[in-house]
TrEMBL record:
Native species: Salinispirillum sp. LH 10-3-1
SUPFAM superfamilies documented for this protein: MetI-like
Name of protein: ABC transporter permease
Classification of source organism: Bacteria, Pseudomonadati, Pseudomonadota, Gammaproteobacteria, Oceanospirillales
Family statement: Belongs to the binding-protein-dependent transport system permease family.
Gene Ontology CC, one term: plasma membrane
Length: 259
């Protein structure tokens, strides 16, 4: 079988770029003798991660749990409100300005309020993940429903379809590409929300671990925590990208499905 270099580069471009950047990072740290407490080399981060693997996994499990719970609530809420906003001009005019205003507020500002209401721990992290991630789902679902052509709706109504039939059989399937696109954005935001809350109001989670490590100048452990968060985010993004490719093949012309 003939080796296709171009195809190999396209398939593995992200891994090759990552290896290149890690090699440059290691060379810079070693070449300039940068101390670990300022900017650790990848080899030092790897050593710290292996040495404290169990502790990192304990905190990563908490962050993953709070992120998934907050994300699940955000998807359910965003889907329901998005359907209401996308199908009703009255709800759209009533809710949209409020939602835009709410989304303009930095979500870190809510963390002290959540701590007063619920105390430190898991609940503020879940709610922060929810608050920061529901808006993309809502907007994308509403946009997918609102872009349904009026002519198509008229034809379906003339054939006897009710408003619920149009929503269930045409509107929702048509908005699936928008929905999956929003999931890929929302899951990364949910991780941001969880970690923000953990740095302020928790004694468990990657955010707390990074704050504790930075207070003792253990930058290798801080960077190990950052890499674990990034790995979890990439894993969930790829999961939703795979679901998008499987469920919305009809919406994409490229042979590989969604990009």
């Amino acid at each position: 079988m003939k080796f296709n270099r171009k195809k190999f580069l396209v398939r593995n471009a992200s891994w090759l770029l990552m290896l290149f950047l890690v090699a440059i990072w290691e060379l810079v740290c070693v070449g300039f003798s940068i101390p670990d407490y300022l900017f650790p080399a990848p080899s030092g981060i790897w050593a710290a991660g292996v040495a404290r693997w169990e502790i990192i996994m304990l905190h990563a499990g908490q962050t993953f749990f709070t992120t998934l719970v907050g994300f699940a609530i955000a998807v359910a809420f965003g889907l329901l409100v998005g359907i209401a906003v996308g199908t009703s001009p009255t709800v759209y005019r009533a809710l949209y300005p409020l939602l835009i205003g709410f989304n303009s507020i930095p979500k870190v500002a809510f963390v002290p309020v959540l701590v007063v209401w619920f105390g430190i721990g898991t609940v503020p992290a879940i709610l922060t993940a929810f608050l920061i991630s529901f808006f993309p789902v809502l907007v994308n679902v509403a946009t997918g429903l609102a872009t349904l052509e009026p002519e198509l709706e008229d034809v379906l109504r003339s054939l006897g379809a009710s408003k619920l039939d149009i929503l269930r059989k045409v509107g929702l399937p048509r908005s699936l590409p928008y929905f999956f696109a929003s999931l890929k954005v929302a899951i990364t935001l949910a991780f941001v929300g969880s970690v923000i809350s953990e740095t302020v109001a928790s004694n468990l989670g990657i955010g707390y671990l990074m704050m504790a490590a930075s207070s003792s100048m253990d930058m290798s452990l801080v960077f190990a925590g950052l890499i674990v968060i990034g790995a979890m985010g990439v894993g969930m993004y790829e999961l939703f990208a795979l679901m998008e490719r499987r469920l919305t093949k009809w919406a994409h012309r490229s042979p590989g499905g969604a990009i």
